[in-house]
What we know:
Blueprint (H helix, E strand, L loop, with lengths): L3 E2 L3 E5 L5 H8 L5 H4 L7 H10 L4 H4 L2 E7 L5 E11 L4 E8 L9 H15 L5 E7 L3 H9 L3 E12 L2 E11 L4
Parallel strand pairs: 5-6
Antiparallel strand pairs: 1-2, 2-3, 3-4, 4-5, 6-8, 7-8
Amino acid sequence: MHNMTGNKILLRALEPDDLQLLYQVENDQSIWEVSGTINPYSKFVLKQYLDNAHRDIYEVKQLRLVIERVDDNFAVGLIDLYDFDPRHKRAGLGIVIFEKEERRKGYAGEAIQLLSQYCFDHLDMHQVYACIGADNAGSQVLFEKNGFVRTGTRQDWLLRSDGYQDELFYQLIRNVH
């Protein structure tokens, strides 16, 4: 897979020297509720993950890319395709921008646009979807700004520290003329 480049960011494959980056992200408890993580990952486990990150999306059913700023190649986040289903031509999309000061600069929106276009043009996908916690207004606006439509609600889907929360289901369906 080649790098996908936009105006502000580029998406690139994980490299062996991304181990420390993955270690910090996967062990950041502030994002565990949205990532589904319940315990920390060791560097050994993450190294094994990196060693297999080159495997084909059709084999492993997921793809994780690093979001880098174009001007200085600084990694600002990660974007994932998960639950890739070639039979039904769909995949889930998840994104994280690491630092608050890097948010609201257009990086996430451009990454979503680039990866969605890759899904439609190169993977022949019919749709990309996102599952967003009902309290995550920022992500809801982000996905809506990028063409995703809220199509459903899973009630009491996510167990958080303060109780159950609904999860909102968003879809971006390829416009075929």
